[in-house]
Write a structure and sequence with these properties.
By secondary structure, the protein is an alpha+beta fold. The protein has helices spanning about 5-15, 20-45, 50-80, 90-115, 120-145, 145-155, 170-195, 205-230, 235-250, 255-270, 310-315, 340-350, 390-405; strands at about 160, 165, 275-280, 280-290, 295, 305, 315-320, 325-335, 365-370, 375-385. Among the domains are: about 5-145, no CATH class; about 325-405, 2-Layer Sandwich (Alpha-Beta Plaits), CATH 3.30.70. Strand 5 (about 295) and strand 6 form a beta hairpin.
Length: about 425
Amino acid sequence: MPLANLLNDLLGDLRDPGLMWQVGAIALSILLGWTLSRFLRRGVEAHGAHTDVARFGVESFGRVVGPLAIVVLLWTSQKVLGRWQHTNLISIALPIFSSLAVIRFGFYLLRRVFARGGVVGEGMQTFEKVFQLLVWLAFVLYITGMYREIFIFLDDTLVPLGKHKVSIAAILQAAVSVVVLLLLAMWAGAALEERLMNVQSMHSSLRVVMARMGRAVLILVSVLVSLSLVGIDLTVLSVFGGALGVGLGLGLQKIASNYVSGFIILLDRSLSIGNVITVDKFSGQVTQINTRYTVLQGTDGVESIVPNEMLVSSPVQNSSLTNRAVVITTRVTVGYECDVDAVIKLLEGAALTVERVMKSRPPAGMLQAFGADGLELALAFWIDDPENGRGGVTSDVNRAIWKALKENGISVPFPQREVRVLGPAPASVA
């Protein structure tokens, strides 16, 4: 509606006693919408939003519910009051809160898709400010009535694209539809992934496969629907498919192999998140299994990005595939005068004092060799948490052994050599 007509209608409503009904309807809509938002946020937080990411999602969604509820209530009030009187004031409040709802919903989608960890970076904040500015600009154009003139101008301005000419309005509409549908598909994929990851009765690899495939299908469907809405014939994708096949055959074999290997790993369940593996010179705990690569985190905190093709074509040592128990061996040398059986029992008892050593599989001591400096003993013990590393528990066991040997007066010999000089002693040199 033109701005001049809107102002005249508002001035006319100021002299109408029914204006208070509009004011009351607007105030009641705002109060009910704000109350509903607060009630929903408190209810969701009380049912398990304990992590930072969950609280972040609840807070973002709670900001959307309020403006949406206000818009619905204002629209209902306008329909009801419009039977008996003018609703020009509500007609102004409705697009204001609609713009606010669009802004909040846009923020919610962006943060759910690109800031799932709960951290909003500077780039995201800048993009949100630009998006907010564009929405309020569209609101101003709608209130002033200038949007029709601008749309007609953009629709009449043609841009040559090859042999055809397309209006700027059609290009903008196509871009908006593609972006909106892609964001909705990515948001639905993220929600599906979070839902699947919480299903503890399903294997972790199967959950990852379903989440990846679900997101890929949603994005593919959104792209196809976007192209259909824009008016692009889907048969042109056959040319793109042929070009993609040639590219895969010429230079993208490794990339395609890694993607196929990623799905093979997830489907055959040879690896799972949390397994401790060793492949080639890389070793660590599996923290991520993506479609192209797998992330291993070592005990020193260093993360290694291993291509999935290496995990399929190379031998992989998995320390926790079906059995998480791992045996560790440490060695010590004692003097020949010691009682071997007593020392072995002493070593086994010392290892059991360490917390990480398994009690269900007791340590076992062995006499390995008769060394040049003493009796060489070995102690094997089991742990069931290989993801925590082996160096720490080995150090704890060695310290317990050293303490037990010292307390019982058992000597740990060190290498000693005798040097004999044969023949006459050399003449002294002044």
